[in-house]
Amino acid sequence: MNVILLEKIGKLGEIGDTANVKSGYARNFLFPKGKAIPATKDNLDHFEKRKAELLASHDAKVAEAQKRAAKVSELSLTIEVNASDEGKLFGSVGTREVAEAINAKSGADIVKAEVLMPHGVIRDLGDFDISLDLGYDVSASISLSVIGLQSSAAVRDDGSVIGELDESDEDSEKSSSEDDANTDSSE
Does the N terminus or the C terminus of the chain have fewer Cβ atoms within 10 A? Predict the structure, then answer.
């Protein structure tokens, strides 16, 4: 089935190109998302009238993607996570955590689908280079440091927590031992 592309699509072509695609791909993806229209004589004439409008819209989207890339370009992030003494994470750092950290630091409105992690999620402490694909052939890269949280918890070799004392627990232990001393002396 021949279609006219209304926006640039990966390996198919640029705006205004005529591409031959499978009919299911056209009916189920391209047409519903407004990315293409059937290549008929009427649609070709209609497209020529709208071509300037579509190109202006495309240029605006590219400019927006470049603006977002400038916000995050060469950004350096640090994410603190629970980890063992050997540097293995208790869990992992994935695209969602990276996107949330970028948004918190830069306000660039990055979604997790734009974060590229070709080697999968991060499961070790260390420094990593992360790429972002912001669409419209615009990309950016950031530097990510994954560091372990400083905790007062005692941890077994298998990674399970033995016990953790924080300041509120210490205060409650002191007050309960003082209460015990007061009740013993009153008897």
Answer: C
In the numeric block, the tokens 């890269």 are attached to 141
Structurally, the chain folds into a number of domains equal to 2
Regarding whether 42 and 7 lie in a shared domain, the answer is: yes
User: Cα(91)–Cα(80) distance, rounded to whole angstroms?
Assistant: 12
Backbone angles phi, psi at 151, to 5 degrees: -135, 155
Residues 11-44: tens digit of each pLDDT: 899 999 999 999 999 999 999 999 999 999 999 9
Q: Do both 80 and 51 map to the same domain? A: no
Instruction: DSSP letter for 113, please.
Output: G
Query: CA–CA separation, 180 vs 131, rounded Å?
Result: 59
- pLDDT band, very low/low/confident/very high, at 153 (cuts 50, 70, 90): low
CATH number at residue 17: 3.40.5.10
Q: What's the domain range around 142?
A: 72-162
Measured from the Cβ of residue 79, the count of other Cβ atoms closer than 10 Å reads 15
**Main-chain phi, psi angles of 10, to 5 degrees:** 5, -100
What is this structure's pTM? 0.69
Better-scored residue on pLDDT, 28 or 178 = 28
- Residues 114 and 52 reside in one and the same domain: no
